[in-house]
Amino acid sequence: MAKRIDLDTPSGAFLSFWRERHLCTLTTLRADGTPHVVPVGVTYDAEARVARVITDKGSRKVAHLMAGTGRAAVCQVDGRRWATLEGPATVHTDPERVADAERRYAERYTRAPRVNPNRVVIEIAVSRATGNAVFDE
To answer: How far apart, in whole angstroms, are the C-alpha atoms of residue 15 and residue 26?
Structure first.
């Protein structure tokens, strides 16, 4: 059963889940309002309430965010555990922000991302989190 996660006091299990190595999905909206869902790596900074996705500036996900609602959701699943983070999303090209996102990615996924001079970072200001009851403590 889905339940809202309190972002002010998330459980240790919830925070740990977002540090484990899992492939995630990113959902953005196309111009016609239909969802575009793609696999991505995600990092989550619970203190700042920011989820980050590194990608190429020419990707469809970036185009959707630039032309659409500016909202996105990321989700990860592991067996019966699942959690979704959502909120307003912005695309950043600032080299320092991109480098910070690459460092966070390397920490979570235990490998550096491939070199990409066209890399940007999508930052989701997390305003809502949902998951299942396994995150209760």
So the answer is: 19
CA dihedral 49, 54, 58, 64 (to 10 degrees): -30
Distance (Å, whole) CA 137 – CA 131: 13
The CB-side HSE value for 29 (13 A sphere, CA atoms) comes to 14
Residue of 116, 5, 101, 112 whose CA lies nearest to 53: 101
Report if pTM > 0.85.
yes
- Residue of 133 and 20 predicted with greater confidence: 20
For residue 2, the model assigns a pLDDT of 80
CA distance 22 to 43: 10
Rounded Cα distance between 27 and 76, Å, is: 12
